[in-house]
């Protein structure tokens, strides 16, 4: 049995910025996935070293991966991990968990409203036409500065959601050979998106859709969410509040029927969500001090009105020792409150709990200064220690089941070091531990240099003297590069149609919601708007990849080749420049990054 799984969805590369060839200010970029894979590759090798002979020689692991084809969906290798190159997707207009999250009933017809989802699909499909006319592909009234779409964005969004659902099917599977912990490397992120309010790079809420899928298909009635992104997950909190509100309403109706001497209806328990966040209250979406956003990001409520929300603010610390004092006294509160949640909501069947980590790495000590410009950063070791503590909680209350989903994290080093530390703690068994020197400066420098794929441009003069020979890289580094090459297959530009495999979803009914309901925790930031029943199969397509290498980019300052430098003809862009100056994308967080 693998201790943990990695789920990778390469369709997520297709979501890219197409308003301009200049992508120097675009921090939510396809290359984020490459950085995450570098960190994951390093984690796999270091874990293999620690586990030792019981998991086989690291060279055997590399050899095992050599035998895999690009069409493989899963590799159960001799390491304590399982790698899944997912090709899962779903139809956002016709999937129960997506409609549970982003659709709501029309009071006039009693049918689910998919207006937002239909709009999202149309915005993506019409993006090139809009841009060619000099307009923005993002409608007026939505945040132009931190949202962008292209025609293939829908593939990325649906692939991301499909992969989260596939991961949950694996983690919740009763088969003892299935790994109970997993990291899902997807983009775009999701925790800023509410029911019909995209913002902060997010168009759908990946984690809440995953929670809904676990509830509808697998009977998971209680979900714990630990959000460790630098930014408050306002969208996730707003959705959790609405779901809890509906579950509480149903509960009160049942109690009233019993009190009146009537038999309670035979209903399935509603979904209850505990949402918690450690974040910087000075950063997006609270940076401009909007009262509703600051209030929502500061809510702490334990059970009243059926709500379970805990927000903890990052604090300044002078040195790392001070940070760990804050961690024990302050930041671990979100885990203590989660224990209160599961104990207070316990049922006869106490096996209906699933833990999610909304795993953002933008609070990292290595994040761009322009992204974390208030200095509320955490050491890399935080991503290992918090993960270990969340695992202890999950072992006690959730049968060890944890699904970690990538949210933020924008510089290469923040993503590499963060995924490295996080997955080591997620994958190593209790009797093994990590070594914090694995992600020290020298090792991170070596790792980034070893995965650098820059190509010389133009004429290169021969050296006047014999070049210096680089020292032989350490064995772990060579093996990490080999693992990375398997995690990072050649990216594709346009997907090909694959054979469809149909996986039947649950036939459970979806929650009923009232249109226009609001709460302090579901407030939306300006200029956003204020915040089912048919079941169809999830569509999972076979892996679809091409043989074309991505070109490099002059403007890239990253340690690997960029995917966002496709030619206009590749991307389907108009040849002529737009007649209007289109908005640039940057998340209202200050000047462009310098590194």
TrEMBL record:
Listed InterPro entries: HDAC_HD_type_1 (IPR053244), HDACs (IPR000286), His_deacetylse_dom (IPR023801), His_deacetylse_dom_sf (IPR037138), Ureohydrolase_dom_sf (IPR023696)
Region described as Disordered: 452-474, 498-595
Stretches with biased composition (Basic and acidic residues): 525-536
CDD domains membership: HDAC_Hos3 (cd09998)
Extent of Low complexity compositional bias: 556-570
Annotated ranges, domain Histone deacetylase: 113-423
Protein name per the record: Histone deacetylase complex protein
């Amino acid at each position: 049995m693998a201790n943990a799984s990695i789920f990778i969805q390469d369709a997520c590369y297709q979501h890219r910025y197409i308003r301009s060839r200049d992508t120097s200010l675009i921090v939510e970029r396809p290359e984020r996935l490459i950085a995450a894979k570098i960190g994951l590759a390093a984690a796999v090798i270091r874990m293999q070293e620690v586990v030792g002979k019981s998991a086989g020689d690291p060279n055997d692991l590399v050899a095992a991966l050599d035998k895999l084809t690009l069409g493989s969906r899963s590799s159960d290798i001799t390491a304590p991990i399982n790698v899944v190159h997912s090709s899962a997707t779903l139809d956002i207009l016709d999937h129960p968990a997506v409609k549970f999250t982003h659709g709501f009933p029309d009071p006039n017809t009693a049918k689910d409203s998919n207006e937002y989802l239909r709009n999202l699909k149309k915005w993506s499909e019409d993006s090139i036409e809009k841009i060619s006319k000099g307009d923005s592909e993002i409608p007026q009234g939505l945040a132009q500065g931190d949202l962008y779409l292209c025609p293939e964005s829908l593939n990325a969004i649906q692939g991301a959601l499909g992969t989260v659902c596939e991961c949950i099917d694996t983690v919740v599977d009763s088969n003892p050979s299935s790994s109970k912990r997993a990291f899902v490397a997807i983009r775009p992120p999701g925790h800023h998106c509410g029911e019909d309010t995209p913002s902060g790079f997010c168009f759908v809420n990946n984690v809440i859709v995953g929670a809904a899928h676990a509830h509808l298909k697998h009977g998971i009635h209680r979900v714990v969410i630990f959000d460790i992104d630098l930014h408050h997950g306002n969208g996730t909190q707003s959705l959790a509040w609405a779901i809890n509100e509906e579950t509480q309403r149903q509960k009160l109706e049942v109690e009233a029927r019993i009190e009146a001497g009537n038999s309670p209806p035979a209903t399935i328990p509603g979904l209850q969500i505990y949402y918690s966040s450690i974040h910087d209250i000075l950063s997006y979406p609270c940076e401009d001090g909007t009262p509703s956003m600051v209030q929502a990001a500061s809510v702490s409520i334990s059970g009243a009105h059926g709500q379970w929300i805990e927000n903890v603010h990052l604090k300044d610390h002078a040195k790392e020792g001070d940070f760990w004092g804050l961690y024990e006294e302050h930041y671990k509160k979100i885990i203590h409150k989660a224990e209160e949640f599961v104990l207070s909501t316990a049922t006869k069947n106490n096996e209906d709990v699933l833990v999610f980590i909304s795993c953002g790495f933008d609070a990292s000590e290595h994040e761009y200064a322009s992204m974390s410009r208030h200095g509320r950063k955490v050491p890399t070791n935080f991503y290992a220690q918090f993960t270990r503590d969340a695992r202890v909680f999950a072992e006690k209350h959730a049968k060890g089941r944890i699904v970690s989903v990538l949210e933020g994290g924008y510089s290469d080093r923040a993503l590499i070091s963060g995924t490295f530390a996080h997955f080591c703690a997620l994958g190593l068994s209790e009797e093994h531990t990590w070594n914090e020197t694995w992600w020290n400066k020298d090792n991170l420098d070596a790792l980034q240099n070893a995965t650098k794929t820059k190509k010389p441009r133009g004429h290169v003069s021969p050296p006047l003297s014999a070049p210096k020979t680089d020292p032989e890289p350490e064995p772990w580094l060579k093996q990490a590069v080999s693992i990375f090459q398997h995690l990072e297959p050649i990216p594709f530009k346009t997907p090909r149609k694959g054979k469809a495999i149909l996986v039947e979803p649950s036939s459970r009914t979806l929650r009923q919601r009232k249109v226009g309901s609001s709460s302090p925790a579901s407030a939306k930031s300006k200029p956003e708007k204020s915040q089912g029943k048919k079941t169809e199969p999830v569509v999972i397509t076979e892996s679809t990849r091409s043989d074309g290498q991505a070109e490099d980019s002059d403007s890239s300052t990253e340690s690997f080749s960029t995917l966002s430098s496709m030619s206009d003809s590749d991307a389907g862009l108009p040849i002529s420049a737009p007649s209007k100056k289109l908005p640039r994308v940057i998340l209202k967080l200050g000047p462009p990054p310098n590194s």
